[in-house]
Amino acid sequence: MVAQRVRAARPRARAVAQTWSGVAAVLLLAEVAARTGLLPRRYFPPVTEMFAELGRQTTETSFWSAVGQTLQGWALGLGIAAAFAVPIGMLLGTSAVRYRAFRVIIEFLRPIPSVALVPLAILVYGVGLESKVFLAAFAAFWPLLIQTLYGMQDVDPVALDTARVFRLGRVERLTRVVLPGAVPYVATGLRISSSVALILAVTAELVIGSPGLGREINAARVGGATDLLYALIIVTGLLGWVLNALFAAGERRVLHWHPSQRGAR
Questions:
Q1: What CA–CA distance (Å, rounded) separates 55 from 35?
Q2: Terminal Cα-to-Cα distance of the chain (whole angstroms)
Q3: Quick one: which of 45, 24, 26, 5 has its CA closest to 220?
Q4: How do residues 36-62 score in pLDDT, each as one tens digit?
Q5: Among 212, 191, 205, 218, CA closest to 81
Q6: Who contacts 258 (Cβ-Cβ below 8 Å, separation ≥6)?
Q7: Are 204 and 140 contacting, i.e. CB atoms less than 8 angstroms apart?
Q8: 133 with 74: CB under 8 angstroms?
Q9: Which of 22, 140, 142, 144 shows the greatest Cβ crowding within 10 Å of its Cβ?
Q10: pLDDT band at 203 (very low <50, low <70, confident <90, very high)
Q11: Which positions ≥6 away from 45 have C-beta within 8 Å?
Q12: By the 8 A CB rule, do 39 and 46 touch?
């Protein structure tokens, strides 16, 4: 049993080592480039200085306050988007008539860049949390809506015919056949929308000046603190990575029965 576990752990350890070796190589190249002058140190400090500043920031209350404000905007925006996108996607996806009736509206609104709505957000909500949440929710709404629509429409016709043969009612077909087939699409949509919501939350902080990491990044730029600037940028990247990893882990756990997850494992 122990030998089997060791053999099973080797490929995983090898994959982790390969992943982090690539990260280490990029960081080393960036460090050497900054130290040797290949990159202007005024605008690109060494990586060690960035992480040293990041370590100092973790002891500051203002840093964690900014992280919390960014996560607050992200969570509210994603939550509002999910509360509207999933029911609307289910409603439209279960009826070809409803889908055709609203398809033009969806295709018109979906390509609008959320940043283009910044003036509207400022006009209606000001420069506080509400504007950030509005932009994050608008941007996160569309990937989740489209994924839900695809999931509701991409149902195995054989399964539906089987349900009809067994005389399952409309509600039972929806809960036992359609929804289980759509859940993987919704989970993927949530993961994509999570990243989009974080991007728009930070963008709103940068452009509008809403409290959070984006505003701190802009303040570091204005003050010429490049090491702090890059440290905060690294934090936003780490937040995105951690949130994506959490959603991916939840997806594997909830959808352990799905063939794609069994294959991934």
A1: 20
A2: 19
A3: 45
A4: 888 888 888 989 999 999 999 999 999
A5: 191
A6: 184
A7: no
A8: no
A9: 140
A10: very high
A11: 34, 226, 227, 230
A12: no
